[in-house]
Structures are given as structure tokens and as C-alpha cells.
Amino acid sequence: AGMCTGFLILVLSPGNAARMHMMESTGGFDYFSHIFTAIGVFNLSLLENLPLIIAFLYLLFTVYKKGLIKKYKQSIVCTLYLYAIGFVSLSVMIFSPNFPARSATVFTVFTLIASLKLYYILKKEQITVVNRAFFYSYSVIFSLYFLITATNALECLSRLNDEFVQRENSIKEQIANGKTDLVVKPFSVVSSRYIFVGDIHADSNYF
Question: What is the pLDDT along the chain (207 residues), one digit of tens a residue?
Fold first, then answer.
């Protein structure tokens, strides 16, 4: 109910309606061509979450294979419900005028919670899911991946902070000199899968 209410507020908010009208009236936005781009982002989000999806399906299959569905029926239903919420929250973004990659966060978190719930059931029944060698290998790979991406994100944020300070000083200097048409340089850091940068654009149709 909370998720549906939140999406209704998002869709029906006057600010989003005004933004959508402006985007369409200026010719800078084509909803139907945007659908194909959104489907591409949706598929990419699923691809990036593929290891987690495979883990969830593997755990669910193991629970089924061990005949634990009836014993933990309520827990299984809750698990499937959590996964469905995450999937629906990602799918509905296809119809949004803006589909940033970070929208997949809800799907990632809920799928992770659902997987951990299944793992807890198997752990409670003393059923081994993965051997130690695989667990340690996966942990090392994950740690290296996290270290590299986190270091890159922190370096980008530090550079953005320095450039933002320089831009602020430049704007103040131009205003002090009586300029009305302010000129600033775009940030050298652009948006990626790990960091979002909302910057100026030369294109007047960009939203």
C-alpha cells in the first residue's frame, strides 16, 4: 500500500506534470522512443543484478528440492512477496519520463533480503548451500570490486568538490565585475553507474 501510494504521489504531483508538459512542448522529449531506451536500462539493471537473481533462484530451488515449502510456507510466501515488490518497483520505472540506473537499488535490496531469508531457512535446517572455498573466493572478488568502485567514486567526489568551489568563486567574481551572462565550465566528472552528477548543459532541450 505504501509503495502504491508513493508512486501515485509521484505520478500525480503538479511538479512532474509541469515538467512533462514542458519537455513535450519544447520537442525535447518523445515518450514512445523513450520507452525503448527505458527497456534497455531495465534489461541492463537485470543483467547487473544477475548474480543476485541466480542466487535467489538457486536458494529457492534448493528449498523446494529439500521439501521445505510446506514447513516454511509463510516464510516462503513473504520471500516471494519481497522479490515481487522489488521487481515491480523496477518494472514500473519503464513508464517514467526519467529512468536513472539508481532506480534498481530497490530491486537489489529486496532481492538480497529475500535471498537471505531463504538462506536462513536452509541454515536452520543445517543444509550446506555453498562450500567454504567458493564462499571465500566470492568474498575476495566482491571485496576487490567494491574497493575499486568505491575508490573511484570517492576520487570523483573529491574532484567534484574542488571544481564546485572553483565554479562558485568564478560566479562570484563575474557578478562582482557586473556581468549578467555568466559563463562556467562543465564538471570534468560525468554521471556513471556509481555516481550521479547533475550539471549544466548547453542543450536548452535537456531536462
Answer: 666 676 666 666 666 666 666 666 665 566 677 788 888 888 988 988 998 999 999 999 999 999 999 899 999 999 999 999 899 888 888 877 777 777 888 899 999 999 999 999 998 998 888 778 877 888 898 899 889 888 988 998 899 899 889 989 998 998 999 888 888 888 888 777 667 777 766 655 554
Question: Could you tell me the CA-to-CA distances from 71 to 67, 109, 122, 126, 194 in Å, in that order?
Answer: 8, 26, 12, 15, 41
Rounded to two decimals, what is the model's pTM?
Answer: 0.66
- The C-alpha atoms of residue 59 and residue 75 are separated, in whole angstroms, by 13
Kindly tell me the burial class for residue 182, based on how many C-beta atoms sit within 10 Å of its own C-beta (0-12, 13-18, 19 or more).
exposed
Read off the amino acid at residue 28: G
Closest CA to 71 of 122, 128, 115: 122
Q: How many CA atoms lie within 13 A of 92 on its CB side?
A: 15
